[in-house]
UniProtKB/TrEMBL annotation:
GO MF annotation terms: 2,3,4,5-tetrahydropyridine-2,6-dicarboxylate N-succinyltransferase activity
Domain Tetrahydrodipicolinate-N-succinyltransferase chain A: 9-63
Name of this protein: 2,3,4,5-tetrahydropyridine-2,6-dicarboxylate N-succinyltransferase
Name of the top EC class for this enzyme: transferase
EC number of the protein: 2.3.1.117
Recorded name of the encoding gene: dapD
UniProt family annotation: Belongs to the transferase hexapeptide repeat family.
Keywords from the UniProt entry: Acyltransferase, Transferase
Species in which this protein is naturally found: Botrimarina mediterranea
Pfam families in the cross-refs: Hexapep_2 (PF14602), THDPS_N_2 (PF14805)
Gene3D superfamilies listed in its UniProt record: Hexapeptide repeat proteins (2.160.10.10), Tetrahydrodipicolinate-N-succinyltransferase, N-terminal domain (1.10.166.10)
SUPFAM superfamilies documented for this protein: Trimeric LpxA-like enzymes (SSF51161)
Amino acid sequence: MDIQTLAARVDEIWAGEEAADARELVKQALDLLNSGAIRVAERVGGEWTVNEWVKKAVLLHFRYSDNREMTAGPIEWFDKVALKTNWREAKVRSVPTAIARYGSFIEEGAVLMPCYINIGARVGAGTMIDTWSTVGSCAQVGKNCHISGGVGIGGVLEPLQASPVIIEDDVFFGARGEAAEGVIIEEGAVLAMGCYVAGSTKIYSVPEGRELPPGRIPARSVCVPGALASRDGSHQTYAIIIKKYRDERTDARTALTSILREGI
Ligand SMILES: CC(C)(COP(=O)(O)OP(=O)(O)OC[C@H]1O[C@@H](n2cnc3c(N)ncnc32)[C@H](O)[C@@H]1OP(=O)(O)O)[C@@H](O)C(=O)NCCC(=O)NCCS
């Protein structure tokens, strides 16, 4: 079945059509997602487009799958979604206790430190997902990014919002930061430690001398956590402050170490 037909069938099943082959069709979609052949969001002509039907397939997968016991030595789980396997074949270095659920896609040459990658998420080639970071369901992380220790990238299955978080290529996301609610971190942006970005988080740019629209961190910007005064001056709220755009000093402090990505 071609992908367009599969998409149309998944839409029908989502809308309530009783189909004898529903389980099989949803499984086909999950297998394609797992292999990277389809994705939840993709850039078309410079703009990010969400493939709604893929998100529907991910949710339907929960309806049509049964919980079952899974074990690793003495450790046991009880869940509907299998874990990804075959790391050698995928040419991905996956450090013990890294967990990626089936239906996520990790591109060749990525490195997973002990982290958690949820269903529908995508991680690009050469990207390091560092220790205790979580890549939420359907989140999209580009190539050659460093997602530092303890970073949280929000998922979109609950609540079922329109867009996943998108981290474009070459982004450095400093330790313990968080991105949620479909924000887009554009190519080459650098977020210092502890930056939290949600859909309404205020973004102030020092180089531009003004507040920028929320929801999008500009390409190559260097962001730090800060605060902005409220309109009536009665209080301050947390804000992302763009201090500058990337320069040689930033590049030196955020450079990726190729030796960690060699020999996979
Ligand atoms: C963002 C970062 C890369 C610095 O980039 P840089 O280009 O060298 O930045 P600079 O030192 O030139 O600082 C530029 C401005 O931002 C401010 N700044 C830099 N880092 C900051 C931080 N973490 N918090 C608050 N302000 C910060 C500086 O004080 C300076 O302000 P000024 O212009 O008013 O003097 C660095 O601060 C950082 O957060 N590194 C990430 C560490 C990390 O998470 N490692 C991974 C561990 S797993």
